[in-house]
Amino acid sequence: MEVDAPCFQDTSSDAPPAAAAVADGAHLLGFSDEILLHILSHVPSIDLILNVRRTCRKLAALCLDKSLTHTVLLQKDYEASEDKVKQLVTEIGWEIQQLSMAGCYWLSGSTVEHVARCRGLVKVNLSGCHLTSLRLSKVLSALQRLRSLAIDVSPGFDASQLSGECKATLSRVRELKQTLYTPSYGVVPCCTSLEKLLLYFEILDRTREGAVLSGQLMVGQSNVPRYQHLRVFYARLAPGYINQEVVRLYLAVLSDRTPENLHAFLISVPGSFAESGATKNLLESMARNVALDALQLPKSWLNGSALLQHMKFSSPFYFSFSRCALSGGHLIRRVIDGGRDLRSLAGLNLSGCAHCLAPDSLLRKAEDDIDSGILETLVAACGNLRHLNLSAAHHHSPEGPGRHLCQLLARLCHLRSLSLPVCAVADSAPRADRAPVQPATHAVPRGFGKKVRIGVPSGPDPFSGQAGPLPSSVFWSLLKSVPFLDRLELIGSNFSSAMPRNEPAIRNSLPPCGRAQSVGDSEVAAIGQLAFLRHLTLAQLPSILTGSGLVSIGVQCQQLQSLSLAHLGTMGKVAYTSALADMLKHCKRLKDLRLEQPYFSANAQFFQALSQCSALQRLCLVSRSGTLQPEAVLAFMARCLHVVVCHLFTGESLSTCRSLQQSLLRSFQAERPALNVVIFPLLHEGLTDVIRDVPMVHLDEVTLFKSRVAEEPPNLWW
């Protein structure tokens, strides 16, 4: 937050003279303390304490209010340098009770060690920070009030180096989030009072030297986890057999005695994960002894199993059956129990469940129409759903009034995030009564730079940005019914990113669903109704012709912060570049842009348009056979001062990529301590090794494509 000096004429006074009125309205300090505190709560903590507090006495006092100093969030504050963080801790460290430094990978271990001065900390998140076992021991030894902790366990971690004071602190910790980069129990055995355990397995099968890792490294460890007080168990695995091997060791302890108070059990595994004797015993024990509020299991544990029929649920708030062979009949009988009241359910993930909205039938094809009655029962039972994911499947609606998927979902007025396959928003069949699609009603650039009128206003508001009249579209009606949607994903049923996790780039992709061919610019324009939209993903929409709908989104969705576009239009040619340029000039709050498009030309005109996104922080471009202009990239980075992530994966040569990456680091690393630049040929065999060096916060949120709606239970962590 920048404060103009003229507003504060006497910085030693309580307030400027006559702080009531200035030429055009009320003076900032004329507001009540309550309003000022609300305004100041949106200022990054470092700016608040090191800058705003020094303007005048009144703001100096307000900036030290407990409501502002008890919780300090430094994650994604990419301008938080080593010196600023140290100074912040020195000035208000004794006041801080909750501190998040998640993803602050640019801070050295010695700087992170200053956290030990915040002796009143109750909750601290150090995920993504550089911490050795000895430094972690020193920090935790000083935090005797700590009850919630998030850390990484990296190669070289040694629990024997933890001091007695550190272990005493850990024994009082009730919530632990642990990201594992090496086979280890980490600090879990020391946390004897755990109520919530979140485990993220990011272990690679091989070391950099090529050595194969094994979970057997953990077998000889004398200490094992203790789960007797556990209420929440969550495990998310990255691809790789080693992660499955290690999580089995954690589960083996849990299977010996199921915690009596367990109410959330969630395991997220990509691909198959075979059951073992220990896991079968665990599930049977859970079915007998506990009533769950949240459940997620590997698909192989549920497919063909009667497990759901025996599970007991109290007031469930989250279910994930992602990629499971769950039919609509099973969903109704075993989960919804024929239509029981599930108003407590806030999140439901049915991504990849091809048959979840269809009756039981061995002859059914994935492309057949859904059973509207099943969806209607689901909607009626789960009327308070806030997060719903139906992506990665073909959900085709049958003919008939009120039977379309969009019409039924429109009853879920509390939705805040929604992920749908593109084919699901298409009208059931072409309709003669629909108005013809009109192009955008305002000037759209042709190429980059030249503008030409491509349409005539057809309504009273010529600047609405819509690609045509849309009230007859079922998708338009759905979005009108959920005006407070914060996140929207439209992802083609057959879409797969060229950059999968821990694997070489994919060279070929499946063709889009045939019904997705009727979803084009006008449907995209309908998204412009969502005034509160902050996160948008559009992938595999083959009928995008000019991209005029993107302009509507740019003009009307002024809260948009992250945008992911992939495979729009035909693959051989990029026809929406002009509309994208026009869209970007309106995206003043856009922080993250991910663009995946074969044959994309990242030239000077593109980067000039992108430079108008003044808040942009992270950029990822993935383009098979794409090109880029190094001079344009350098000029863009010089203009966009907040950009700290520049990931470009194109068809350029290795020498061109390396030269540009070195130039960017040499030019901007000193002034941007968090700068992370990766420029590499997309189809190069060394891509996997390059990706492993990307900080997890960027890899998970920007570099890799994935659906994020209902990916985890709401409010799983802060």
UniProtKB/TrEMBL annotation:
One Pfam annotation reads LRR_FBXL18
Going by the entry's taxonomy, the superkingdom of the source organism is recorded as Eukaryota
Q: Which residues form a coiled coil?
A: none
Q: Which GO terms describe its cellular component?
A: SCF ubiquitin ligase complex
Q: Where is the F-box domain?
A: 33-74
Q: Keywords in UniProt for this one? A: Ubl conjugation pathway
Q: Name one GO biological process term.
A: SCF-dependent proteasomal ubiquitin-dependent protein catabolic process
Looking up InterPro entries in the UniProt record yields: F-box-like_dom_sf, F-box_dom, FBXL18_F-box, FBXL18_LRR, LRR_dom_sf
The family database entries (Gene3D superfamilies) matched by this protein are listed as:
Ribonuclease Inhibitor
F-box/LRR-repeat protein 18 LRR domain ranges (all copies): 85-675
Record PANTHER family: F-BOX AND LEUCINE-RICH REPEAT PROTEIN 18, F-BOX/TPR REPEAT PROTEIN POF3
Name of the molecule in the record: F-box/LRR-repeat protein 18 isoform X1
